[in-house]
Amino acid sequence: EIVMTQSPATLSVSPGERATLSCRASQSVSSNLAWYQQKPGQAPRLLIYGASTRATGIPARFSGSGSGTEFTLTISSLQSEDFAVYYCQQYNNWPTFGQGTKVEIK
Amino acid sequence: QVQLVQSGAEVKKPGASVKVSCKASGYTFTSYYMHWVRQAPGQGLEWMGIINPSGGSTSYAQKFQGRVTMTRDTSTSTVYMELSSLRSEDTAVYYCAMAHIGGVATIMNAFDIWGQGTMVTVSS
Fold first, then answer.
1. Which residue numbers of A have CB closer than 8 Å to B's CBs?
2. % of chain A residues with pLDDT over 70
3. pLDDT at position A15
4. What pairs with residue A86 in β-bridges?
5. Distance, in angstroms, between A73 CA and closest chain B CA?
6. What is the DSSP string of A31-77?
7. What mean pLDDT do residues A61-80 have?
8. Which of A22, A66, B18, B70 could form a disulfide with A71 if both were Cys (CB 3.0 to 4.6 A apart)?
């Protein structure tokens, strides 16, 4: 099983600031990496797939980068609706998820 | 539009079984694989397995082997996930999810379509 490790566990950011979230895979997953946003009581929402492609309707302030084992999700200027938990997921093999990064208001 | 609608919340006793349904609409049911993912309270996401609605073939995460069964009914465009020998650690929200990105059917891809989730509570 491919283990996904996210850091940090919690990120405190002020609105308008930049947020950078990291995800590391225990072995190469090529570019088969997705990012999701989840708010309380809701299903996850796909933000990024293929490591860097924004899903339909996702604002341009969300961007993804990386390949192999190291990946990054960047939110360029945090809006109030962006405070949530973010998960990375690899799908190079049977899917596995990171443990999540909570982005909270500073 | 593509939509997955799941059955309602369940409360079960330890040792019992639960069967959760996921009704699909807005696309050709047999063309896209369906996955199940669960999330314990305050915890992360955990993949449980996959079913091919076309032929009914399945593959399960090792953790759930022997306890989970995924089936489908093509006449109603519904997939089912049954989990047996329930224990308190199985208390979670269970989601069906699928990859429908660009209308391309692949066994492995990101999940752009999710059901609303079904809360299963296991308690004596």
1. 1, 32, 34, 36, 43-46, 49-50, 55-56, 87, 89, 91-100
2. 100
3. 95
4. A37, A101
5. 15
6. T-EEEEEE-TTS--EEEEETTTEEPTT--TTEEEEEETTEEEEEESS
7. 97
8. A66
Residue B110 is nearest to which of A1, A89, A94, comparing CB atoms?
A89
Amino acid at A28: S
Interval B55-90: pLDDT, tens: 999 999 999 999 999 999 999 999 999 999 999 999
Q: Is A95 helix (H, G, I), strand (E, B) or coil?
A: coil
Residues of B with CB under 8 A from a CB of A: 35, 37, 44-47, 50, 59, 61-62, 95, 97, 101, 108-112, 114-117
The Cα–Cα gap between A39 and A102 comes to 10
Q: What is the pLDDT of residues A2-32, one digit of tens each?
A: 999 999 999 999 999 999 999 999 999 999 9
Residue B96: Cβ-neighbour burial (10 angstroms; 0-12, 13-18, 19+): buried
- Token pair of B94 as six digits: 């269970």
Cis peptide preceding B53, ω within 30 of 0: no
